[in-house]
Amino acid sequence: MCGIFGCVAVGNYENLNILAANGLASLQHRGTESSGLVGSDGVTRDHVEIIKGHGLVRDVITEDNISRMDGQSIIIGHNRYSTAGKKKSGINCVQPFVVYTAMGTVAIAHNGELVDTKQKRKEVLHEGVGLSTDTDSELIAQMIAKAIALNVKCKYGQDIGDITRELAVTMSALNMSYSLLVMTFDRLYAIRDPFGNRPLCVGTVLSSEGKPEAFIAASESCAFPANSKLDFEVRPGEIVELSSNGIKSVWQVRKQNFQVMSFEIQMKPNTPLAMCIFEYVYFARNDSEIEGQQVQTVREECGRTMALEDDLEADIVGNVPDSSLSAAIGYSSQSGIAYEPVLHRNSYVGRSFIQPNDEMRQNAINMKFGVLKKKIQNQRIVLVDDSIVRGNTMRTLVKMLRDAGAKEVHLRIASPPVKFPCFMGINIPTSLELIAAQMTIPEICKFVGADSVRYLSVDGLISSVQKGIERSANFSPGHCTACLTGKYPVPIDL
Predict the structure, then answer these.
(1) Cα separation of 411 and 434, whole Å?
(2) Is 315 annotated as a binding residue?
(3) List 2, 201, 302, 445, catalytic entry
(4) Tens of pLDDT along 113-140?
(5) Which of 5, 82, 250, 343 is deepest in the core (most CB within 10 A)?
(6) Which residues are catalytic (predicted)?
(7) How far apart are CA 419 and CA 485, in angstroms?
(8) Model pTM?
(9) In this structure, what is the dihedral angle of CA atoms 50, 56, 62, 65, given to the nearest 10 degrees?
(10) 358 annotated as belonging to a binding site for a ligand
């Protein structure tokens, strides 16, 4: 689960570097380990500007170095949440990756994780390609470079920056999961795997007169500035080209309000859709649109469904800030139990779940939360959260509430138990780290110190997510629930 952002200037738009930096900052929730920007001036084929470093966007992309992106006409960026790759602390693992190819410099930003990395790595190495990291993202970059080299003789006299065919060849050789941004010297490509496992959307930044100033692609629409519009979500299996001339899909025609672009190559999915359902549960920001619906609306629906599945009597409904607020509001609305904030979250501490090890996660928990004592004393609390993964956070929070005077603490989790590891972009490598895989629900209740624990059912989650999609003619429901059910969309290369 990483954040990717890309933008292309139209005409003389001068604020592309600020647009890119702000876009990455808006996707900070998708990764906090490192950040990077790569920019092209749109003319020079063999040179790019690079800003990379470990830490948050605000620490990596500063007033001192953002000026290096002045005059760039295309910029892509990446916030890292590491999954594959042992050398996670190395600067060479920080994306976007840059490779020098037969047609010029190419940069990629990758969100997701290939399930067959081991096999693909062997193939690439046996073909004589050297790799500087063990990340699947670099594998993709090198496979694109190889496809370009094999086809470069056919490109003489053609549009050299157009690598649509090379990308289609590469993508057909890859297994899930990936959403990609690929930048050549004069254009940007937004690509989504045929399962649609990770989100990706395209939009337009508009001037005060309503004319396009830049085209943008991002993991989530929350990264788009206020003066922009969401044009569409990249469809599963689709490759979309963004350039100063407009937006062109290689799957189907997209009509902009200023011109119609055609397409040449089709890469239609021949697989069942498997959008990660945990994007709705936890990862995505409330104000993002995914599959044509607001994430907050889905989370509220999960809360209402959970209340319908419950029969608890309590005094107040509270939540673990911040992503579970919508579910708590939905639970409160359906149950008739008043909502009250019971915990305060320190906004300057990162998400504990996406910290890379247990020690860092525990330190983040202790720093992150404070109890609103006057709200909870002698109260029976329904504490709503979006998930319990390892259980460390919840155990600490229940104790904090009891110590502050809560009469009862009942946990209601707005997703089913996470029992199985994810191999498609989430850092849960084994079931040994998952509390629901190691304990029964009564055992979990005892471990965290709650009076009761209840989860949303799998059917309840799926119906809550797909309720809004079914009202839209543009999307077909299909979601990956592997971490909940153990049913993986594809065979896993362990």
Answers:
(1) 17
(2) no
(3) 2
(4) 999 888 999 999 998 888 989 899 999 9
(5) 5
(6) 2 (nucleophile)
(7) 7
(8) 0.91
(9) -10
(10) no
